[in-house]
Amino acid sequence: MSVVHPYRRPSEDIVRAAPWTLAGELTELADDLPDWDYDTVLPLRRTLVVDGARARNECGLKDDAELAVSVRWTASGSLLRGRAWRAPVPPTDGVELSVEFDLPGTDLGGTLGLDLSLVLISPGGTISKIAPRRPGSVLWADRRDVRLRGDATQFPIVVTDFGSSTYPADAPWILDIGGGLEDAALGSLLLLVNEKRKNVVDVVTGRAAGDPARSAAVLSMLRSDTLRSLVEKAVVEEDFDLSTEYPTGSTGAVLQAVLRQHFENDLGTLRREHTQDPAYFVARIQAAAGLLKEEA
């Protein structure tokens, strides 16, 4: 089923991308990395050739329109995501770009998704009524999924009946955090999904069909709530400290990675906000998670 966009898009060959590789390797990145673990940093590389002038012309844009190529990543195991790389695209053809970035293993797990996109930053002066005008409009996109450590996930997901448990019967999900800070996250973090909430179960298990925007909203709320649970664990756990060297893949290491990525290691401020202004604390986490934010 093809997707119809409400604006003009350029030809598929507007971006010519070489395969993803790991730094120092000549062969294409494999679909499975069975030897990957949480101590493994992925040095991802890719080369591109972008026809910036032709892209603008075919979209009905003038040369002053601002375009960029960006790479965003998602990890199903940690439910984390982020923008790894971005570069502007000048209004000339044959622009060569080298995509280079490293992803730390403590942020990953499960299936790693790599989304490469040519996006509109600013429309400038358009020459067509159906030219893209909204910043963030995707003009070209390419996705690659890579399974890390087989199908293992940092947060195992279990679909269960909340009605027969101590959890609220109508709650959609809960991130259960057990064990100590030095225990393996793989055995301490468990995402429980209520089997009675079929719409949520379908999205989490990848069986959702129909409205993609609705599925994206569910995942966005799930990521935000999961991030909140992890940050709250960090701020209320008196023994948790950013300077401690926790074992690789442990709950403590995961919490450190979360605070490093989203809050610049600002544990003291988070603890004060959690106590003195809990509403602001929650809003700050929602902002960090990009809750219901349209992706660029």
Provide an overview of this structure.
This protein has 296 residues and is of the alpha+beta class. The chain has helices spanning 52-59, 185-188, 198-204, 212-236, 251-263, 267-276, 278-289, and strands spanning 15-17, 21-22, 32-33, 42-50, 66-75, 80-89, 95-103, 111-122, 138-148, 157-160, 173-177, 189-194. 27% of the residues lie in helices and 28% in strands. The strands form 3 sheets. It has a 5-stranded mixed β-sheet with strand order 3-9-8-5-6. Strands 1, 2, 4 and 7 form a 4-stranded antiparallel β-sheet that branches. The chain has a 3-stranded mixed β-sheet with strand order 10-12-11. A hairpin with a 4-residue loop joins β5 (66-75) and β6. The longest helix is centred in the C-terminal third of the chain and has 25 residues, at 212-236. The model has no long low-confidence stretch (mean pLDDT 87).
Describe the protein's topology.
Layout: E1 15-17, E2 21-22, E3 32-33, E4 42-50, H1 52-59, E5 66-75, E6 80-89, E7 95-103, E8 111-122, E9 138-148, E10 157-160, E11 173-177, H2 185-188, E12 189-194, H3 198-204, H4 212-236, H5 251-263, H6 267-276, H7 278-289
Parallel strand pairs: 3-9, 10-12
Antiparallel strand pairs: 1-4, 2-4, 4-7, 5-6, 5-8, 8-9, 11-12
Helix pairs in contact: 4-5, 4-6, 4-7, 6-7
Extended strand count: 12
Described by strand count, sense and barrel closure, the largest sheet is:
5 strands, mixed
Radius of gyration: 21 Å
Query: Overall pLDDT, averaged?
Result: 87
Shape from CA axes?
A: globular
Task: Please report the number of helical segments.
Answer: 7
Secondary-structure content class: alpha+beta
Q: In which order are the strands of the major sheet placed?
A: 3-9-8-5-6
Percent range for β-strand residues? 25-35%
Helix amount, in percent? 25-40%
**Gap between N and C termini:** 23 Å
Low-confidence stretches: none
What are the secondary-structure elements, in order, as H or E?
EEEEHEEEEEEEHEHHHHH
